[in-house]
Write a structure and sequence with these properties.
- By secondary structure, the protein is mainly alpha-helical.
- About 40% of the residues lie in helices and about 5% in strands.
- It contains three helices and two strands; from the N terminus they run βααβα.
- It is globular, with a radius of gyration of 12 Å.
- The relative contact order is 0.24.
């Protein structure tokens, strides 16, 4: 699947935000929670339970085929920073 222009997969967004390899899944979970709670807009694709690949994310979000526009990700990051 080709990502929309100026978008990152949830996995690629997590890689960009993670401080190290151990934090990658934690950031994926954090992004998935933000998507599930309406804090971060994304083009979401979900796994059927029997299709699951890798470690599970909230809402069965497919980390490789869920896309986040770069501008949305940047805005979400700004909202999370302390004032």
């Amino acid at each position: 699947m080709n990502p929309p222009k100026d978008s990152l997969s949830l996995h690629d967004a997590a890689l960009a935000l993670a401080t190290g390899p151990d934090a990658e899944h934690e950031v994926e979970v954090e992004l998935a929670h933000a998507i599930e709670h309406g804090e971060l807009r994304a083009n979401v694709k979900r796994w059927a339970t029997e299709q699951w690949e890798g470690r599970q994310l909230p809402g069965n979000i497919n980390r490789l085929e869920t896309f986040i526009e770069r501008a949305e990700l940047d805005a979400w990051q700004r909202r999370r920073q302390p004032a």
